[in-house]
Amino acid sequence: MASVRSDENIELMTYSEVMDVSGYVGNFKVKIRRKPRYVDESKCTGCGVCQEKCPFKADNEFDVGMGQRKAIYTPFPQAVPNVPVIDRDVCAYFLKGKCRACEKFCEANAIDFEQTESFVEVDVGSIIITTGFDSFDPSVITQYGYGRYDNVYTGLQFERMSNASGPTGGKLQLKDGSQPKSVAILHCVGSRDINYHEYCSRVCCMYSLKFSHIIGEKIPDAEIYQLYIDLRCFGKGYEEFYNRLQEEGVNFVRGRAAEVTDLSENANEEGKLIVLCEDTLIGRQRRIPVDMVVLSTGLEPRADAGETAKMFSLSRSADGFLLEKHPKLDPVATTTDGIFVAGCCQGPKDIPDTVAQASAAAARVLSMISKGEVEIEAATSVVDEEICSGCKTCIELCPYGAITFDEEKGVASINEALCKGCGTCAAACPSGAIVSKHFTTEQILAQIEGVLV
Amino acid sequence: MNFEPNIVGFFCNWCSYAGADLAGTSRAKYEPSLRIIRVMCSGRVNESLILKAFAAGADGVLVCGCHPGDCHYLKGNLSARRRIAGLKPLLEAVGIGSDRIRLEWISASEGPKVPETVKSFTSEIKKLGPSPLNGRHNGS
């Protein structure tokens, strides 16, 4: 991110949202809403005094609700640009009109409560969509007790907990502050499940294995259980990592967990969370008492993926992710020329695959730029001026405004750069003056004759 | 005599044809009654093409496009919907019957919907019998 920001050919717009997209390949117009930060980016030095002095707190989204942040905050430690933002819903000045502590302590005079949202319109030739994913919310799977039991965590929460800059400073601990002696990691939470998402989220197996390794490093005598359906260690070096963990003594239990409960049946289970499952390798039901449960939550499409698809006129596949042009032959482009996708907005994938897809998308865009011109659709429509009666029926119908009326000649004319070749005008033309190239009436009629032989 | 209907399908390139493609790559099977003609958009299909298909002896015509709001060309499918709604009374009046034309929305991800649609439309056409204009079957 930092090198992107410092590149003079790249303009980075953070805290901004695309509102509207119009135009076509080579000539997109994108309307962007720049939300007010209430901090002047050009003055702020990123010293962080405002965040120290701010007296109001809220749950930290980046730590998945486990830690707290101030009303003026940077979303995470390495955020680019390193400029804080004021949360209007928490800031006392916006709620009650008093405080302004940050303004008082800011030496750079960067705080500006008068900022308002602004809109900018940019002209771009191509667009790469990398809107990412949402993490599955496991509280809907009530039998796993997420949100009900203190020591049931999601994968993302565990990730933050194990991070040195996280809410516990990298210490693995239970809600009461003590160290867990045993941890169960439940795979496929929300994925490979006909009740939630049928697809495999692809990353959970490997991050679950990574968690076992981290636990083993931080708490060497901890008992670690992995409850899996299949372990999908598909990438380079992944299977070797799995083998290494087996040697490290992680307990692999083949079977999806049925339930997490705190109802103990003997002294051994007292005060613990008990994971119920069927171990399908030994063909027996098991009760596994542990201190901590980590749910390997899957990935799902962003909540607003539908709106994104509509805005860029893209399709979505049955699972809700953005649809690529071709699953095998063109997994980077979309059905809209000049718009590319990369990363998890197109489907769950891990970091190497995301980097590969994003590089491919960037290369595709670069090749278009260096060529300097784009090939337009060959199957456009043309008007036969001899036949056109000038009724203007087609003008209304064209969704791209490609048809204009030539007042001088009294006929319609089609801008071939704007025409996408849908043929709606050709179908509607009452005098048959519009020819949809490659899909002419004669060609289609010949096909009809052909298929009915 | 066993009646095997001939159905002409107009499938839009972006949703329905891609859906049929998906049905194919997932090795789904559908009745041999349907012969698909690819058009860029269901909006390309007009009354004259449909009537010509019937005149050429089709027992049914199936027009498939993107779901409303998903059209690759924004609103071509709505034109198709309007045209077919307007054509039905005419088909009824000339004796072909309005049930011989069907419009379906099939998206690129709805592979299984293609065989389902073909199956249900074929069985409907089988019930209706050969089209009065089906020269091959009527032996004229």
What keyword list fits this structure?
heterodimer; A: 453 residues; alpha/beta; FAD/NAD(P)-binding domain; Alpha-Beta Plaits; five-stranded parallel β-sheet; 12 helices; globular; B: 140 residues; 41% helix; 16% strand
Report the sheet-strand fraction of chain A: 15-25%
Secondary structure: helix percent of chain A: 10-25%
C-alpha Rg of chain A, in Å?
A: 29 Å
> DSSP helix count of chain A?
12
**Main sheet strand line-up of chain B:** 2-1-3-4
Distance between the termini of chain B: 16 Å
- Please summarize the sheet with the most strands of chain A: 5 strands, parallel
Describe the structure.
Chain A is α/β, with parallel strands linked by helices and 453 residues long. Chain A contains twelve helices and 23 strands. Chain A has helices at residues 2-6, 49-53, 92-96, 101-105, 155-162, 204-218, 238-247, 305-311, 351-371, 393-397, 424-428, 441-451, and strands at 16-24, 27-34, 57-59, 68-70, 72-73, 85-86, 118-124, 127-129, 133-135, 152-154, 182-189, 223-228, 251-254, 257-261, 273-279, 284-290, 292-297, 299-301, 339-341, 381-383, 403-406, 411-414, 434-436. In chain A, strands 10-17-11-12-13 form a five-stranded parallel β-sheet. A three-stranded antiparallel β-sheet of chain A has the order 1-2-7, with no helix packed on it. In chain A, helix 5 (155-162) packs parallel to helix 6 (204-218) and helix 6 (204-218) packs parallel to helix 7. Chain A is globular, with a radius of gyration of 29 Å. The N and C termini of chain A lie far apart (62 Å). Chain B has 140 residues and is α/β, with parallel strands linked by helices. In chain B, strands 2-1-3-4 form a four-stranded parallel β-sheet, with helices on both faces. The radius of gyration of chain B is 14 Å and the shape is globular. The two termini of chain B are 16 Å apart. The model of chain B has no long low-confidence stretch (mean pLDDT 91). Classes of the chains: A alpha/beta (453), B alpha/beta (140). Chain A binds chain B through residues 310, 313, 315-318, 323, 335-336, 379, 397, 399-400, 420-424, 426-428, 436, 439, 441, 444-445, 447-449, 451-452, and chain B through 6, 8, 14-15, 35, 37, 39-41, 43-46, 48-49, 52-53, 56-58, 66, 69-70, 72-76, 79, 83, 107-110.
